[in-house]
Design goal:
This protein is of the alpha+beta class. Strand 4 and strand 5 form a beta hairpin. Helix 3 packs across helix 5, helix 17 runs parallel beside helix 19 and helix 18 packs antiparallel against helix 19. The chain is globular. The two termini are about 50 Å apart.
Length: about 850
């Protein structure tokens, strides 16, 4: 990987020297289906890639380089002069010397198909043997498919042509047609390398169209397409995808005042995808898990709608206007993350999406912002490896939260007018932070520099805690908000917040009776407008979730939540309280068993299905990582009993019943629990309204495999029943979950010692390997992990390296000895790749946090 890295300084130097007029890229993909199996002797399966780049150099005679990662180069021609590939190509760069003012570079290469989801990924469907291809490039993998200048600020138009096997369809960013056996695509607008795209294969393809008439009478027509593997076509609800797409296009046209600029709008749901989705203009790619093979809750449909709208927002924030370098990745990702929820609430049936944002999305941000690797929203990205790791909770969820705060700060109208000016001023160009701040300053009349310094250029999360003093009559004499910042990041920020006061009604409901919006700045702010109010039972200092902070509670409020959390009627307020309680648990301020108890007592009354599923995940994490080890067995029994109780009492056929069924499977461990799962699978037991479809069958089989009830023959039989790509991934995960030393050794070897598995099967194997009930079985691999990770990072792709380093860290060996071993590795490997050290430091921090939480829980008297 280091040889494929590109530094920010190198990119800036090249951008100052070169400008690109256009690319012609010709790919021959017929080799994707030629021959049986993969080439012998470890040689990669390759395809021919011929690239012509027309570019200018403002210092004739200077030298530079083009990017290409390929097994071999057949020929290189610069300005009609043939160059020796052996002399100018080193495996990742092509040396370009003695450049003219105007240049033409032609590179004929053999590029490799990918099995890791990077570059041109080749997938063979086990169900029917069909081959499917798609590209994924961000941040810098287009150079695995064609020669280029791989950095976001060297934009250019592209013309693609593709030769494909007979019977295939090929898609790219522009509209295409098949002529004389070659798919030729319309030239794109000037775009960055990382958002070019090709999808090819016998995909199922559905079509629709979108029409928009503007106030000046002009009309915009956008052809719509949606595609997936043939095997998923029976499950593909393309009509709903098109519905969200049209609603999103209407919403963004209403608010952005800039017509969608990229012609058609295809959306491809592709196999073995590493990301959620990618904003390639005209051809957005998604992971195919967004096509639901079984019954799912509305939270899953909301998540898909959010991703569709997130990627659509990128057509403006990211594709039309692109950050200059990955330092300003937030200029696209933070905005898209915010706009995904903003659009879902404003345009679709998911009008409660801000609740999901407050409860689920912000949890990702809070965790990332407390890691040792936290960084400002505007990051300091030295190179491509840094960039790869910065697609994180800071860049996405904290950035989106900060934008939500910005809307409260400058007003929605000024915010959107700023966006409109930004698009028109910088269309098809590249920007930095200052470019956005200048238009927001124009539209809001505010000095944005101080706000940016506080919110975009510093790291860490503040905590806001209410202080309530009552007068002799029992009314509020003074209510203040105390702001704290961690020692590592001591920045106190200006917050625009709403403070809500809650009391129980005579009927027992916990409802808000007073609310004030105010600015909090500095260590202590008095909220004067609440003086004289009736004494509250609960003070919520970030009511309506206007700012980004950790909410704390005064003693009265916390006591109220312990007894009456389920009586809180407002779903957003309830979600905020749950999130705050989880942060208290993670911060070792609330015993983890207390959080488990709150879930057991009140989660069954949770109306928002997304919040309920988040509570299930948090309760599981609390049991696995945060409770004292001696209480795990008790806690496990309580969770399993509570989940089964809620499963049996949930409304038959409801999404709540389905959520509790999945959680019960996660918690099941006793012989009666496992017997019930077995009986539900074979039909000897039923629960009224619960449809045990194929996806739920696999959810039940994993705990059965992990506890030794479902053996290899049972899993093979289930794969025969579900002989699909999805079924194979499930089977691989379940196989690795079995409680056997031999199984663990095989799984470890398949992931760490071999590169035979695809990215999706690596992910599945890792997911099955580390089971909470098998801590002793996994213990020998802690030492092996530290011995292997530097080699894995050096030899494997960055995506697989990330999966292995994150996924196989011995987190379940939660003892001081593991912490010491981690510190010893970090001490001994100070010169290791910074991105690798970052991953290990993050895992170490999670482990240290778990140990602190366990110590807190051990002091609890129980509940």
């Amino acid at each position: 990987m280091p040889g494929e890295n590109l530094s920010r300084d190198e990119a800036r130097e090249r951008a100052a020297l070169l400008s690109v007029d256009g690319y012609d890229v010709s790919l021959d993909l017929r080799s994707a289906v030629i021959g049986d199996g993969d080439p012998k002797g470890g040689a990669p399966r390759t395809f021919r890639s011929v690239t012509t780049i027309r570019f200018r150099c403002n210092e004739p005679g200077a030298s530079s380089f083009a990017d290409l990662v390929a097994p071999s180069v057949t020929s290189v021609s610069l300005n009609g002069r043939d160059l020796d590939p052996g002399q100018v190509f080193d495996g990742s760069r092509i040396l370009l010397e003695d450049l003219a003012g105007e240049n033409e570079l032609v590179v004929d290469a053999q590029c490799a198909y990918s099995r890791t989801g990077e570059g041109l990924h080749r997938f063979v469907d086990p169900e029917d043997g069909e081959v499917y291809l798609y590209t994924q490039y961000e941040p810098a993998d287009s150079r695995r498919v064609f020669a280029n200048f791989e950095q976001p600020d060297l934009k250019a138009p592209y013309r693609f042509e593709v030769r494909a096997p007979e019977g295939w369809t090929v898609w790219s960013n522009g509209a295409g047609e098949l002529a004389d056996g070659v798919w030729k695509f319309a030239e794109t607008k000037p775009i960055s390398t990382y958002i070019t795209c090709v999808v090819a294969g016998p995909y199922h393809y559905a079509t629709d169209s979108y029409t928009r008439t503007f106030e000046d009478g002009s009309k915009l027509e956008i052809p719509l397409g949606a595609l997936c593997r043939k095997g998923l076509a029976p499950h593909f609800d393309a009509d709903d995808v098109f519905l969200i797409t049209k609603q999103g296009l209407d919403f963004f046209h209403d608010h952005f005042d800039y017509p969608y600029p990229f012609g058609k709008y295809d959306q491809a749901f592709v196999p073995e995808y590493n990301l959620g989705a990618m904003e390639n203009p005209g051809l957005v790619t998604f992971r195919e898990e967004y096509i639901f093979r079984g019954k799912v809750t509305q939270a899953s449909y909301e998540a898909r709608a959010n991703v569709i709208l997130h990627e659509m927002a990128h057509m403006w924030f990211g594709d039309l206007v692109t950050m200059e370098w990955w330092d300003d990745l937030w200029l696209k990702e933070s905005f898209a993350d915010f706009m995904g929820t903003f659009g879902a609430v404003g345009a679709t049936r998911f009008t409660d999406a801000w609740i999901t944002f407050a409860n689920r999305r912000k949890a990702w941000a809070y965790r990332a912002d407390q890691l040792p690797s936290t960084h400002p929203v505007t990051a300091d990205i030295h190179d491509l490896e840094d960039a790869k790791l910065n697609f994180d909770g800071i860049t996405y969820a904290k950035g989106a939260s900060v934008l939500k705060q910005l809307v409260a700060y400058v007003g929605q109208d000024a915010f959107l007018e700023g966006a409109r000016r930004y698009f028109k001023r910088h269309a098809y160009g590249n920007t930095r932070l200052g470019d956005l701040l200048s238009v927001l300053g124009e539209t809001s009349g505010r000095d944005m520099s101080a706000w940016a310094r506080a919110w975009l250029q510093t790291a860490g999360v503040n905590s806001l805690t209410p202080q309530v003093l009552l007068d002799p009559a029992g009314r509020v004499a003074e209510l203040a908000v105390v702001q704290e910042a961690p020692e590592s990041h001591p920045e106190e920020r200006p917050h625009r917040i709403a403070v809500g006061l809650y009391r129980r009604t005579p009927e027992g409901a916990l409802e808000r009776y007073a609310r004030v919006e105010t600015d909090v700045d500095g260590p202590r702010t008095v909220v004067a407008d609440l003086a004289g109010a009736e004494a509250p039972e609960l003070v919520l200092v970030n009511d309506d979730d206007l700012t980004y902070c950790k909410i704390r509670f005064d003693d009265t409020s916390l006591a109220t939540l312990r007894e009456h959390l389920g009586a809180l009627t407002d779903p957003l307020a309830r979600a905020l309280c749950w999130s705050a309680l989880w942060n208290l648990t993670r911060d070792a301020l609330l015993p983890a068993r207390d959080f488990v108890d709150l879930v057991l007592r009140f989660a069954g009354r949770e109306s928002d299905i997304g919040v309920l599923q988040m509570l299930h995940a948090w309760a599981h994490s609390a049991l696995v990582h945060y409770v004292a080890p001696e209480w795990r067995a008790t806690g496990g029994e309580l969770l399993a009993e509570g989940a089964l109780r809620e499963l049996r009492t949930a409304e038959p056929g409801s999404e709540h019943q389905l959520a509790w069924a999945r959680f019960f499977a996660t918690a099941a461990h006793s012989e009666p629990d496992l017997k019930l799962l077995t009986d539900l699978l074979d039909g000897t037991s039923t629960i009224d309204g619960l449809d045990v479809d194929q996806e739920l069958r696999w959810a039940f089989l994993e705990p059965l495999a992990a506890h030794g009830v479902a053996d290899e023959s049972v899993l093979a039989a289930e794969l025969a029943r579900d002989d699909t790509a999805s079924g194979k991934r499930h089977q691989v995960r379940c196989l690795a979950a079995r409680p056997s030393a031999a199984v663990k050794a095989q799984a470890w070897a398949q992931v760490v010692e071999s590169d035979a598995l695809s990215n999706a099967l690596v992910e599945a194997t890792i997911a099955g390997f580390d089971q909470p009930s098998q801590r002793e079985l996994a213990a020998p691999y802690a030492q092996k992990y530290f011995a292997a990770i530097e080699r894995v990072w050096r030899e494997r792709s960055i995506q697989i390296g990330m999966d292995v380093v994150r996924g196989l860290f011995p987190a379940l060996q939660d003892r001081p000895e593991t912490l010491a071993a981690t510190d010893a590795w970090l001490q001994a490997h100070r010169e290791a790749a910074p991105a690798l050290r970052r991953l290990v430091l993050e895992a170490r921090d999670d482990l240290a946090r778990a140990l602190r939480a366990q110590e807190c829980d051990a002091t609890a008297d129980g509940v």
